[in-house]
Amino acid sequence: METPGRIAATPDALDFTVENVEKALHQLYYDPNIENKNLAQKWLMQAQVSPQAWQFCWALLNPDKVPEIQYFGASALHTKISRYWSDIPTDQYESLKTQLFSQIACFSSGSKMVLTRLCVALASLALNTMPEAWPGAVAEMVRVFQEEGGGVDGRARCLALLELLTVLPEEFQTSRLPQYRKGQVRGALGREWGSVCPLLQQLLRRTDSPGAVKARVLRCLSSWVLLDVPLSESEGLVHDCFSALPDPELFDTAVEAIVNAISQPDSQRYVNTLLKLVPQVLALQEQLREAVQNGDMETCHGICRIAVTLGENHSRTLLEQVDHWQSFLALVNMIMFCTGIPGHYPVNETTSSLTLTFWYTLQDEIMSFESDKQAVYLQVYRPVYFQLVDVLLHKAQFPSDQEYASWSSDEKEQFRIYRVDISDTLMYVYEMLGAELLSNLYDKLGRLLTNAEQPTSWQHTEALLYGFQSIAETIDVNYSDVIPGLIGLIPRININNVQLADTVMFTIGALAEWLADHPVMLSSVLPLVLQALGNPDLSVSSVSTLKKICRECKYDLPPYATNIVAVSQEVLIKQIHKTSQCMWLMQALGFLLSALPVEDILRNLHSLITPYIQQLEKLADETPNPSNKLAIIHILGLLSNLFTTLDISKQDDESADGSAPPVKTAPPPPGPNPVVVVLQQVFALIQTVLSKWLNDSQVVEAVCAIFEKSVKTLLHEFAPMVSQLSEMLGQMYSTIPQASALDLTRQMVHIFASETDHFPPIKALFELVTSVTLSIFQQGPRDHPDIVDSFMQLQAQALKRKPDLFLSESLDVKAVFHCGVLSLKFPEAPTVKSTCLFFTELLPHCSDVPPLARVVQEDGKLLVQAVLEGIGGGASRSLMDQFAEVLFCLNKHCFSLLAVWLKEALQPPGFPSTRVTVEQKDNFSQQILRERVNKRRVKDIVKEFTLLCRGLHGTEYAAEY
User: Fold this and answer.
1) Cα 591 to chain center, whole Å?
2) Angle subtended at Cα 478 by Cα 475 and Cα 484, rounded to the nearest 5 degrees
3) What is the structure's pLDDT at 9?
4) pLDDT surpasses 90 at 819
């Protein structure tokens, strides 16, 4: 067969013939050339929506065609009916319906995939004609297929009818009907349930119904209940589903149907029906036990889904039926059995994880009753939740070492996530059980560790500790009286296994705040942590625990400092840990050193940093290559992480919740800050490294990070370095401009610009980086959105901290303003955001900084035009709030000028969008000019206008706003 090249190339209406469609399908399925396949695909999509489709689709359904071709014909029919319904004349509805019925009858014994497409096409026709043009559609479908006819055997006809009834609600869920029609059709379908239900019941209850028919009936029920068929009306069928569960062939579809029926939001109204379902679910316990014994995971899973769905969706309703409390408690215990199902998740069972959300739901419902009712429920359910804790900790246990070694990495990862879910559940359960839960865990652990008769498995100990850690990590356990006992037990644990050691570490870490209040206990756990630091398998847990202890307990650690530093140095030299853990370890040491006397800090810093400085000197001499680059970045990273947390001024920790910056309460000790001393010693070396690596943005970033972290931590104590660093930054930026240098300049401006002593170097640096950046703008800044972004942030910071910087003769204020206008048109949203911030900082200074006042008067119109262009569709819709803020500032600080600018800017036809009329533009500018106080209102006006400009007003896209 020739390749129909011309078909794909010229999709002319005359070409959409049966013959050509078949050629294109052959090309799509059998041509090895991917180009040809794609062309055929495109051409066929056009054919499908062409007017000629009405002719060729029936011809393609000919019995002598192959199924792929028939399928395309059926799909084309569905596309025409579902998407181009309005093209079909009313007088053709009847004949279309009759043709579809006869095709479905023909295909009821033919290709299943073609039959389904035809059913979907007829379903679409029914949805478009219900209820007016085709009242009683479902009843008619049932009647047509039940009549003898056409020599098609009864079973095939029955299956075709069930297929049609199954796809009807599914097609409704995905149909593109307009909202008002959706409501009408849903109502009409609801009324048709009366024709469907008796048919399904009759087929399910007939002993001679073949399995295939029953399975299709169950699928059909699943499909209909999703239309919110009232549970009271499907009750009989749901009972029949329970009767189908013992049949292995029907099990999965029956489970699906039951779960769908009882999880419909509406079903909780039918209390009596729900009460009748509880004994039916309880009756499945025998089948569940047998499945567990036979290792039949699918059956366990299905029965558990049913029990959990009933419990999770209806726990409140069932709790409120006080007369039936025993049957609900029996259901809860059945779910408990599923939680504790034997075997290790996910290798020998996958059921237990389904139950965890049920326990949250039940607890929420119990805790939401008023207190007298709650007390009654707690009496019944507190013991259940104590049992749940035992079951969960049993499930969280690791398998034997031998078995665990045989698991795949994917199974190990699933088990890890499962344990996190258990941990979350335990944390939640603590809200109900309170301190008694911790005592309970402590007693069990104590018995385990002090019982000399029975040797304990490490798994058992680990799970109990894991339970403790889950709670202590997120809940304040400082008031618990069992923690001292727990800390006392930890050294008695025989740690002979990595998982157990990890959990011991994380448990100590979770108790760091408690240790800060009880420093006397540090001596019993710190040696364990330091010992674990030397084990690469415990890298994450030991380093993060040491970091927590150093952060929380730093004022109690001086007696241990020498030891901690020595062990840390040793593991750093041996390179036991990966990069990120080395960085955490440096942060830990920063916290630790902060609490020591200055001379001790200097001594420790000296021994800690010297090996790295020597290494860096060696690297600085070498010719740059990729491996020494990584080593340089690593060393610079270690230094910056150390300086991030090394802060010798006593801080008021009360404000350390992140809401306010820490307040320095005590004056720093006299003399230079140790960090500054070290930075001054290595400054020349860092300059040498820089001179060789100026072209490499990662090395430059790593250098800037050291100073940025130090400036942020030390604040004004960084003062002795200001002039040196300003000079170095200026040189760096003039040679090869990089965003990280601008970000560091911004930090310096933020802290030192308003200090008289430091104003000259900061001013010189600010002017230098500004003029270098302006020259980038002249060469074309599009390739450097990151530099433009950082530059705008720097300018905004300068305006905020020290507007005097803009009084300088050497600063071209006009050029900076023009760069801002240009930056507003960048496609990168972060850059535009920073630029809007720059303008909102600049406009308020029109009154007090003459150069700024001049440039706004002369060029303000350009700014207004750029903002309108963005609102008109030039910028992402996510930026509209920022543009609104600029307009609001203009209105507040340049009101009379804005009125003129808006009028002039909106004058040209088609600006800012061809979609807005002159009236809409006038209305917009009047609304803006009226709002000088309410910023929220300006944002709404801008959003409204941008939707008009984009032609989205009143669409579903607009609704996302």
Assistant:
1) 32
2) 120
3) 44
4) yes
Burial letters for 351-377: b for 16+ Cβ neighbours within 10 Å, e otherwise?
bbbbbbebbebbbebbeebeeeeeeeb
Contact 788, 779 (CB under 8 A): no
Q: Is 666 left (phi over 0), alpha (psi -120 to 50) or beta?
A: beta
Encoded tokens for 445: 């652990």
CB 664 within 8 A of CB 649: yes
pLDDT of residue 67: 87
Given CA atoms 632, 637, 640, 645 in this order, what sign does their dihedral have?
negative
Distance CA 109, CA 637 (A): 72
Q: 663 by DSSP, 3-state: which?
A: strand
The gap from C-alpha 584 to its chain's centroid, in whole angstroms, comes to: 26
Residue range 104-127, pLDDT digits in tens: 888 888 888 989 998 999 899 899
pLDDT at 852: 93
575: left (phi over 0), alpha (psi -120 to 50) or beta: left
The rounded mean pLDDT for the chain is 89
Q: What is the pLDDT of residue 664?
A: 52
Pairwise CA distance, residues 189 & 196, whole Å: 10
Q: Kindly list the domain boundaries of the chain, sorted by start residue.
A: 297-494, 856-960
CA distance 509 to 163: 59
- Residue 3: strand, helix, or coil: coil
The average pLDDT across 537-564 equals: 95
Supply the pLDDT for residue 651. 55
Tokens of 858: 């002369």
- Burial of 514 (C-beta count, 10 Å sphere; 0-12/13-18/19+): buried
- If you write DSSP's letter for every residue of 190-218 in order, what string do you get? HHHHHHHHHHHHHHHH-TT--HHHHHHHH
| Residue 674: burial class (beta carbons within 10 Å; 0-12, 13-18, 19+) | buried
pLDDT at 73: 86
Tell me the average pLDDT across 850-876: 93
- What is the average pLDDT across 635-653? 83
Cβ 685 vs Cβ 613: under 8 Å: yes
CB atoms within 10 A of CB 250: 20
Closest-CA residue to 573 (of 612, 515, 624, 518): 612
The candidate with the shortest Cα–Cα distance to 577, out of 507, 664, 490, 637, is: 637
How far apart (Å, rounded) are the C-alpha atoms in residues 4 and 37? Answer: 11
- Quick one: three-class SS letters along 633-655? HHHHHHHHHHHHHCCCCCEEHHH
For the whole prediction, is pTM greater than 0.90? Answer: no
The reported pLDDT for the residue numbered 288 is: 96
Give the span between the Cα atoms of 748 and 798, in whole angstroms.
10
